[in-house]
Design goal:
Blueprint lengths: L5 E8 L2 E8 L2 E7 L10 E4 L4 E4 L1 E6 L12 H11 L1 E6 L10 H14 L5 E7 L12 H7 L3 E3 L8 H13 L3 E4 L16 H6 L7 H17 L3 E3 L5 H12 L4 E5 L1 H5 L21 H13 L4 E2 L8 H4 L16 H10 L5 H16 L14 E11 L18 E11 L2 E2 L2
Parallel strand pairs: 1-4, 6-7, 7-8, 8-9, 9-10, 10-11, 11-12, 12-13
Antiparallel strand pairs: 1-2, 2-3, 5-14, 14-15, 15-16
Helix pairs in contact: 2-3, 6-7, 7-9
Length: 423
């Protein structure tokens, strides 16, 4: 085909065998596969048996650099991202120093460019308040100019509603979103286990679901009162889903995310004081899990993020109440969500929307929908590969995966960014 320099031939896309035509880093056409079709002069990649997917976008990761490179650094985090199918990640500000000034943002971007010049892209998320202390707004304009795509106080909720309102206003003026961690600071903040049967059995203080939904309600009310958009991080429970659904029905400018671990696992994983299942917000009940699945199918929950939170082994190999919260996800999230597609919990369209299309749209990142002119960012995924989530198979420095030791089905076979093969 004239004007093409790369052809992905015979891959499956939405139950049809297709040929993807790429030229000069852009999508030219996605067309039905014809066995007799030839492409003289183009590089042809035979992709029979593989599934074609747009590259994924993760709007919530922790890459730990600067300051905590023993847990993860930008080089290793982006390696986990690209092999996990992500062409772009949004990195939170809980570094040391905190990403609350332009020089930190610029350092993060320079590290990404140095280690992964062809991608995946790193999009820093600037601190909402100085030092993440919740008392004074960060220099948001400076951070935006340096390259921050959104603002968040990460895992420390902003309890001062006046400061939070002003943050939403300034972010909106800059054309950016605020990502809020919804957690009441007095209802077992950071407990790492749901308040319920399992916490009672273990004799551990838990976090009730209202500890999350109280702040979800607050954010919705502020958004409605001042007509300001807000994005709600890692939603974990049915009560929050109900509030978000009602807000969207009333046209309030709220978007929301959840994570693979809330869609697959429950509080039962914590039995035996399993620190690999300790996360904030905590894993909830089967009822909450089903509510989240339904919300994702309906679009009430907009996107899936990993909340990739790597820790060193010695930090998790401690008594449960001393262990840090956090689960890694860049290596495993696509395989985990693919398992739900195979089970019929979601269709492929939901996966693509939640892990690629909507994140790009919400945060203005640009993405690939295979329309002519889109960036040629895509993966070839083998849905039949069985692999073990073992420390040796995880590219992230953090091996604190909730599915460590499990056999997973499906793995990225190759990844193209800007039409260039990364692996």
């Amino acid at each position: 085909m004239a004007g093409s320099d790369l052809i992905i031939r015979g891959a499956m896309w939405k139950d049809s065998m297709t040929d993807l035509v790429v030229s000069k880093s852009r999508i030219v056409e996605l067309r039905p596969h014809v066995e007799s079709e030839t492409y003289p002069g183009a590089q042809v990649v035979e992709a029979f048996g593989l599934t074609l997917l747009p590259s994924l976008i993760d709007a919530h990761v922790h890459l730990r650099e600067p300051g905590f490179e023993y847990k993860e650094d930008i080089a290793s985090g982006l390696e986990a991202a690209v092999y996990g199918g992500f062409s772009a990640v949004m990195a939170m500000a809980n570094t040391n120093p905190v990403n609350d000034e332009g020089s930190v943002t610029e350092f993060m971007l320079s590290q990404a460019k140095r280690h992964w010049p062809k991608g995946p892209k790193l999009h820093p998320v600037g601190a909402l308040t100085k030092g993440l202390e919740g008392r004074e707004l960060s220099p948001m304009a400076e951070l935006a100019q340096a390259g921050c795509v959104a603002f968040s106080n990460d895992g420390i909720p902003v309890t001062d509603t006046e400061i939070f309102r002003r943050a939403l206003e300034y972010a909106s003026d800059l054309g950016k979103l605020v990502i809020d961690h919804c957690e009441d600071p007095y209802l077992a903040m950071g407990a790492g286990v749901n308040e319920g049967v399992v916490s009672g059995y273990l004799g551990i203080k838990g976090q009730p679901t209202v500890g999350e939904s109280l702040h979800v309600a607050r954010d919705i009310l502020i958004s409605a009162a001042f007509d300001l958009p807000v994005h709600l991080a890692h939603i974990s429970c049915a009560q929050s889903v109900e509030l978000i659904a009602g807000a969207k029905e009333r046209g309030i400018k709220v978007t929301a995310e959840t994570c693979p671990h809330y869609l697959i696992y429950t509080e039962e994983e914590v039995r035996g004081f399993n620190t690999l299942a300790k996360v904030n917000p905590p894993l909830r009940t089967a009822h909450d899990r089903e509510a989240l699945r339904q919300a994702l199918r309906q679009g009430v929950i907009d996107i899936i993020v990993t909340d990739h939170a790597p820790h060193a082994d010695f930090e998790k190999e401690t008594p449960f109440e001393e262990a840090p919260n956090g689960i890694t996800g860049l290596d495993t999230s696509l395989s985990l969500i693919w398992s739900l597609v195979r089970q019929g919990v979601f269709d492929l369209e939901t996966l693509v929307r939640a892990m690629s299309g909507r994140p790009a749209e919400i945060f203005g990142l640009g993405g690939c929908s295979f329309a002519p002119g889109d960036p040629a960012d895509f993966i070839l995924f083998d849905p039949e590969i069985v692999w073990e989530a073992s420390p040796g198979n995880l590219r992230s420095k953090g091996k604190n995966s909730i599915c460590l030791g499990e056999s997973l089905l499906g793995k990225v076979k190759s990844h193209y960014i800007g039409g260039k093969k990364i692996f």
